[in-house]
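Q: Sequence in, structure out?
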Amino acid sequence: TIAPLDRAGRLPRALRRRRPPRFLLHHSRSFLASPSPFLGKFLLPGASAAVLLMLGVLHAKRMYDDKQLVERKERGIEPEFSPDLKASFLRLLPLRSMSRVWGSLMEVEVPVFMRPAVYKAWARAFHSNLQEPALPLEEYPSLQAFFIRSLKEGSRPIDPDPNCLVSPVDGKVLRLGQLRGPGTMIEQVKGFSYPVSSLLGATSSLHDATEEDISGEQTEQNVPESSNAKSWWRVSVASPKLRDRTLLSPKRGIFYCVLYLHPGDYHRVHSPVDWSIFKRRHFSGNLFPTNERAVRTIRNLYVENERVVLEGQWKEGFVAIAAVGATNVGSIKLLIEPELRTNNPGSMALHSQSYDERVYEPEGTGMMVKKGQEIAGFKMGSTVVVVFEAPLSKARGDGTVSSDFGFCVKAGDRIRVGEAIGRWSQS
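A: Exactly. Output:
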């Protein structure tokens, strides 16, 4: 049906669209045309509340997982590798994009009056020590700024012993041990291991050190029990004593230590020794979580995840640090190379073994860093793997052997920056 028109050709008054009053039009136009202070005041606390809600969910889940793990350990059950449906489901999620969104939320500025309450809630949830931050809580503009906080001077004393290697991070020791034989493997969890070459890269100079170590062991094994025969002796000019040639060259081993950083931990990475950094490799990969459940269920977890590897030499030989990213932790910052960007949009590599490599100048000398010096940082909890060469034996002046490397920690221990991971005696 067609509505009848009046004499002027207009619709009846009841069917006409009523225009709002002019003052409402004015206010609505100004509200849409320019950002409103009220809108900003609403969005900022709203985003902060969303972040806090997500943190609460993560904390509840972590408490449940920790309780389950403690109960298993009390029963004497060691976690073993066992893939599950959740691990398969994670591969379907856009974890890299989710991590970038999470990073944006973490960088939302928190109103000054809310900062102490927000950061104290974080500290209670993740067991952070609020006596250590270098600045008052009100001076951290966002959760991200608080998360990557620096510490008061002297909070992390560095072990001065020149014959020790210290922890580069605050964290929990997951795995540690010695790498032996060709195709050396690092144990991810009981029942599954991955090649160290896949973690560090095919061009890593660790392979040369490994071959030297293997050839040294084979030479030692080929020496007959009557190795004191005169053919293996030589006369010292300084001393009339006869000495075994095998004692004159130090024997070295290659070791590793895997350290997991909880969300409440201090998240800056420091140098474990005085060393020269020769190369940096950036592997663009997945961003799976790296918590204990993920370690037990995701195959090749550290090899598939995005990571930055620093490699070089210290006084005892090879050393490398692999900073492994995780869900919500795609961003790894290098103080020695601030222009490096990780978890970039569109940079996902189909093959995790492809990587970008940079050689630090001057070639062969690299970049010198001191023990305890800050070199990198995470934007959320993740994992650091340290691979290093250390002496198993050394010759003393009297022709006898001293110095045996040993770990100062064991799996499950908590450790802080500057505390010794391992040391050896030398006289």
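The radius of gyration is 29 Å.
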